[in-house]
Specification:
Helix content is about 25%, strand content about 25%. The chain has about 210 residues and is α+β, with helices and mostly antiparallel strands.
Length: about 210
Amino acid sequence: MTHPLSNLVRLLAVRRLTHLRFLGLVALVQLAGCGGSSGDQLTTPLFEGYGPSSPSTCPAARLSDIWFDSRLGCVSPGQLFLSQQAAVGARADRAYMFGQETLDNSQANVLGARVQRHFKYALCLRNAPADLAPLILAGDLSNALGLTLLLSGRRFYPSGVSASSFSYGGIIDVHTLQQACDPSRHPLIADFASLRLESVNPGALAQVQIFDR
């Protein structure tokens, strides 16, 4: 018999992942307005623009396909990426650290309890305002890489995965680093001025520290 506490822990984990994906949608819903049903909204250019730009090359064949470093084929330069438009503060190039958590069909963490796979400064934003909300940025990353069901109308998950999402930060080092965005060092580069992806370079993954913790 499953212990009630175990069920509660799993439920909280699912809610946490759902909350992170929801944060990425908040700004989009505000921009879309109140008209129409949710089904209508899924067909608007606004919502289509924030999903994977290349569904046919968005992998979902095996568990390893769920991780950030396997999903750069989902996106392409020029696509809409950032949902935040009201952030203010001094602007500079900034790189961000994210952790990715993935649950299996039993809502268990595939890496072990409370373990995430971290991608250190893999995403860099040009002209990033000082007060840009990293949690919403984590949601934007989930949307672009096909981890958000609501935007794409489908999910790009391999069999055996029930949920996967990004959270901001990590245990070691600073979570946001002011440094020049460089395609040779940062696999993903977006520009806050245009809200679009500027560069996608899988070759730069060799320069990214990836670790589970």
